[in-house]
Write a structure and sequence with these properties.
Blueprint (H helix, E strand, L loop, with lengths): L4 E5 L4 H9 L3 E6 L4 H6 L2 E4 L10 H14 L7 E3 L7 H10 L7 H8 L1 H11 L6 E2 L9 E5 L8 E3 L10 E5 L4 E9 L4 E10 L9 E6 L5 H18 L3 E10 L2 E8 L6 H4 L5 H10 L4 H8 L5 E8 L5 E2 L9 E2 L7 E2 L4 E9 L2 H25 L5
Parallel strand pairs: 1-2, 1-4, 2-3
Antiparallel strand pairs: 5-8, 6-7, 6-8, 9-10, 9-12, 10-11, 11-14, 12-13, 14-18, 15-17, 16-18
Helix pairs in contact: 1-9, 4-5, 6-7, 9-10
Amino acid sequence: MTGETVLIAAFSARALAASARRAGYRPLVVDCFGDLDTEALADASRCLPARVQVGFTARPLMAALESLAADAPSPPIGLVLGSGFECNPRLVAKLADRFTLIGNDAETIRRAKDPRQLFGALDELGIPHPQTELNAPAACEDWLMKRIGGSGGLHIHRCPAKPRPDPRRYFQRQIAGEPISLLGLVSETSAAFAASRQWTSPFPRRPFRYGGAAGSLPLEADLEARLIEMSLAVTDALKLKGLVSLDYLVDDGTPSLLEVNPRPGATLDVFDDAAGTLFKAHVAASQGGDPAALVASDWHPPVARAAAFLYADRGPLTIGTVDWPDWALDRPRPGSLIGAGQPLATVLAEGDDIDAVQAVCAERLGRLETLLYDTSNEQGARP
């Protein structure tokens, strides 16, 4: 147990806080939900509103982090950023002026999320990707419109017939394939990767909303080698470090790279172990260490684990007093008003077979949805 404090900021920081706590750190957390389990994991926490489209507002975020650091029992070793910052590299640069970033800096995030830079680099490397344009195509059928720096699939829409000009958008031809994501742990000297299967949870006007992931995904040897080769080339070209993820579509054995996320992602819940090895390795990568060696010697992930998001798709509700099952995470406080389509909780399943744990995860989503809506109705909560 290090006992050292570490700052964490993300839209939802529970997974990072849990990994940090397992690794022996004392997490100081800023996020947008303030869930029961996040509060229990954190040494101290602050809950701030933020919009998915624009992320955090600089002044209140800086004040919250300054307050946590000032009250900490020891000076924080640095700041770990999760989701919510890819759309605002300027804010990341401001944070770096005050705190030691554990992870990628503002310029690296900009390279990874700017479609001109990212897909230009992929072309130079000869890495397949869908046709990508900054301007709307003449015929929008079979094209997607994406928001630069978006996350969780909420930034992806089918291209409308006459999209409005918007410098925050780009366009990508829709292609077929199986969604496979690689969690990467990279540094200047080493890298390690783990593959997961991902799926969507469609909702009106959000057809590509993130649903969940299951891993470790067994891959045919040639495909695995190709994915790792491509991922190594990309992470080296973008100068990424720490925990990152790369999203692919694989069609008939041929992978195409869709996006690069230069931060710890949702599959931290899938791949982390009881010792928080991935958080330790993320810190090591940012401090010039050898994270792959740490993973090779100390990482003991489950054979198979799935994690899925539950959304309030049956309509808005107010959370009642819930007897939460132990496989449910991101638990809202009693009295929290959850809007239609918003995140409600996360469910986990673990076992020896990836297909089986994914099926259990789906069944638990249904059980938890029924529990939460029934509890809300029984207690007379008004949505």
